[in-house]
Design a protein that fits this description.
Helix content: 55-70%
Shape: flat
Distance between the termini: 97 Å
Largest sheet: 7 strands, antiparallel
Number of strands: 19
Strand content: 15-25%
Number of helices: 18
Structural class: alpha/beta
């Protein structure tokens, strides 16, 4: 072997080689550790220095930003004081007089720091009046709402007459983006013609944070110098350590060479004696002057040779006895093999018989299991078919009544809101008209429930947190439930976001709670609502439903009421099925719940036992938390003075639309005939700024009318309304060029906001159109 050739044969040489090899191992380990540790040590120092530097820069930058904000705010307040004083001195000067006055312009437009400046705009309208660049004077700041949304957010907040400030991104002519800070302060003194103004001070943020970047460059040079010094020190330590360990290996090798030669003399004598014993000389003995383990080893060798000499004589007798024993053993093994072969044949025949019986049994069991599975599958398909047919029947019914009923509700809600506005606040009739509005709203919600149940319409859905909505709904329902019913809420999950609308979830919860309360109205009980997160697996207890595996939010409503029999449980979600007396329920509550849950891609199951209670479990797919949007704050009803053409085939809705829109300040032309509306518009297309039309009308439908109007005047804004229609959808309306698609009945706030949004968008496009 190659290893045998390389290793020397003498013991002293081997000992020397072992010492050298053993000494090299710590040298290699030391070199590796020093190299690895030095790199890690330098990296840790660099990271520590970098972390400290980053923290210091962040604190410094935050401090400088705060100083910059305070400087800009102070400048805005100072200019506001100067302008208030100037306006008090010349109270007769109008806004137009002040714009022509050069001295007032110098006071209004001042420098802020090195890069900033102040401007002046109208507090109510947001129109810029004084600017260092004259081309931005007399310009509506609303036009920057899309290109500079953060800037417009600050201006819009200040339009309420309050101070506002914040950061926004500014795009330079070369394409680079820089950050600015602006602070706006409303003036307390008006102009001679009653115009309220606000002063805004703005400047680049880089102006205040420049010292931080300069200090950071100096610190980086210092860090590189420090790391170079540390690296040189580690390298010098590594060289010194290697030299010291090498010197120790040389000394140890010389000592091993001397010791090896001393031990090798006795080992050589043992090797020579062993050769003679192999040749048959059992009288040889070895002499040694050494003590310890080597001396003991020599004595044991001499004893072994003496015993070997004594036992050699009886060796031949032992060999003869072994031969006889070997022959006897061979005969015995042959007899055992013959008997084993016979027993094996018998056992194989028995196993074949057992296998035949087991093959036949398995076939029968598989055939039975397959038959049972086909029967269950057929029953599930038949149940799904019956449910689909019921849903289709309800959908046909819902589509038939939705349009006419929504038109009636629209008239009731519209005229009731007008009457409520005209009544004195302390009038007793206010309560009566609010009751009418409440009843109409419930009717509107009923239509939405039926349409949602039949999937003829969809709610506006978004990311929704269930816990606060459940708490709010239960708080509203508490007063209507008997005091004998205790309510327990277990809302322990932190991830309760689903994709749904609040109305849908409230409807589901209200129907389930109402049914549970009815089941406990005689003897009272406990209503428990649990909310939890579960990971649905394919092999779970719900594997026979149509829910997909994944993460879900589980809503469980449990009552201790009268419970249900198995026959009732099979029909509990059927439309119009109810166990209540006539007048106590229509049998639509759980059907609506079923339809809503299915439309949310969820699943609902029920467990119940008579005299024990019922458990309704709902699984809804979980949505990410970052999808939740901020709530929209209530705003005043927007008004205007544009010209509107209003078309609806219902006389009451035409009367309401004309009255309501004129109260908002608009000039309205209303008609119940779509052909007449087309004729009026064709005679002078420029006389209207907006068209509002119903969809379902005799002769020309709203969608067809919109297409004709757009052919006459392509930029006329159109709003299409409908109580319900299979022939039109938001997508079709958008493809036809219609700006907004609304579902009846409409509230005054909703319609007023949509009208204002459409008109403002059209006006913005006209202002931004190149001349």
């Amino acid at each position: 072997m190659l290893l045998t050739r390389i290793i020397p044969r003498k013991f002293s040489s081997r000992l020397l080689l072992m010492i050298l090899f053993t000494g090299l191992i710590p040298v290699i380990i030391f070199t590796f550790l020093i190299q690895n540790s030095s790199d890690r040590f330098k990296n840790e120092i660099n990271q520590t220095v970098q972390s400290g530097r980053d923290q210091e820069w962040r604190r410094s930058e935050a401090f400088l930003r705060q100083q910059g904000e305070e400087q800009i705010c102070a400048k805005a307040i100072d200019v506001a004081l100067q302008l208030n004083l100037a306006l008090r001195i010349v109270p007769w000067m109008t806004l137009e007089d002040l714009q022509r006055d050069g001295k007032f312009h110098e006071v209004a437009v001042q420098r802020v720091g090195r890069t900033g400046y102040t401007t002046l705009y109208e507090t109510r309208t947001g129109i810029s009046r004084f600017h260092r660049d004259r081309k931005y004077e007399n310009v509506k700041l609303r036009r920057f709402s899309k290109s500079l949304p953060a800037f417009w957010a600050i201006v819009r907040k200040s339009l309420t007459g309050k101070s506002a400030g914040g950061y926004y991104d500014w795009k330079e002519p070369n394409g680079s983006v820089c950050q600015k800070y602006m602070y706006a302060v409303p003036l307390t003194t008006q102009t001679g013609d009653g115009v309220r103004l606000s002063v805004a001070a703005t400047a680049y943020v880089d102006e205040f944070t420049q010292p931080v970047r300069e200090a950071e460059a100096i610190h980086q040079d210092t860090t590189r110098l420090l790391m170079g010094t540390i690296g040189a020190s580690i390298e010098a330590f590594q060289k010194t350590g290697l030299f010291t360990m090498g010197l120790g290996i040389v000394v140890a090798s010389l000592l091993a060479l001397c010791v090896g030669r001393y031990f090798s003399r006795t080992i050589g004598r043992l090797r020579e004696a062993t050769g003679r014993v192999n040749a048959g000389d059992y009288a040889i003995r070895v002499r040694s002057s050494m003590s310890g383990e080597i001396g003991t080893f020599v004595a044991d060798f001499n004893t072994m040779v003496a015993q070997l000499e004594a036992t050699t004589v009886s060796k031949h007798r032992l060999e003869e006895s072994e031969e006889k024993l070997r022959q006897t053993n061979t005969e015995l093994l042959r007899e055992v093999a013959e008997r084993t072969k016979a027993e094996g044949a018998l056992k194989e025949a028995h196993n074949q018989l057992e296998r035949r019986v087991e093959e036949r049994t398995d076939e029968l069991q598989q055939a039975y299991a397959k038959l049972v599975e086909e029967i269950k599958e057929r029953e599930q398909l038949e149940a799904q078919l019956r449910q689909a047919q019921k849903m289709e029947a309800i959908g046909t019914l819902a589509g038939g009544i939705a349009h006419d009923f929504n038109n009636m509700l629209a008239a009731i809600i519209g005229f009731s809101e007008i009457i409520e506005e005209d009544l004195p606040k302390d009038s007793l009739s206010v309560h009566h008209i609010q009751s009418v509005l409440g009843a109409a709203s419930r009717g509107r919600d009923l239509v939405k429930q039926i349409l949602a149940f039949s999937r003829k319409t969809e709610h506006v859905r978004g990311a929704l947190s269930l816990s606060p909505l459940i708490k709010e709904t239960i708080q509203l329902l508490r007063a209507s439930l008997p005091t004998t019913i205790a309510i327990r809420l277990n809302l322990n999950t932190a991830e309760d976001i689903v994709l749904a609308s609040p109305a849908e979830i409230q409807q589901v919860l209200m129907n389930l709670v109402t049914n549970a309360a009815f089941a406990m109205h005689d003897s009272g009980g406990t209503l428990t609502i649990n909310l939890a997160n579960i990971d649905f697996e394919p092999d779970s207890s719900l594997s026979n439903t149509d829910v997909e595996p994944g993460e879900y939010v589980q809503l469980v409503v449990t009552d201790t009421g009268s419970g249900m029999t198995p026959d009732v449980m099979k029909k509990v979600f059927d439309p119009f099925f109810t166990t209540k007396k006539v007048g106590e329920g229509a049998g639509m509550g759980l059907s609506v719940v079923y339809g809503i849950v299915k439309s949310l891609h969820g699943v609902i199951t029920v467990e119940s036992r008579p005299c024990v209670g019922s458990i309704f479990k709902i699984l809804l797919p979980k949505s990410p938390a970052d999808m939740i949007s901020e709530p929209i704050k209530a705003e005043a009803t927007p008004t205007g003075n544009e010209r509107i053409l209003f078309i609806d085939d219902e006389d009451l809705l035409v009367e309401w639309g004309k009255t309501f829109l004129e109260k908002l300040g608009y000039a309205v032309k209303a008609t119940t005939v779509s052909a007449e509306a087309l004729k009026v518009f064709s005679s002078d297309p420029s006389q209207f700024d907006l068209v509002i039309s119903d969809q379902s009308m005799p002769g020309i439908t709203g969608l067809h009318l919109a297409r004709k109007l757009l052919k006459i005047r392509s930029n006329i804004p159109i709003i299409l309304c409908t109580g319900y229609s299979d022939s039109v959808s938001p997508e079709k309306a958008k493809e036809a060029g219609i700006k907004e698609f609304l579902m009846k009945p409409l509230g005054k706030q909703e319609l007023a906001k949509v009208i204002r949004r459409v008109l403002d968008t059209a006006e913005s496009k006209m202002l931004n159109r190149p001349s």
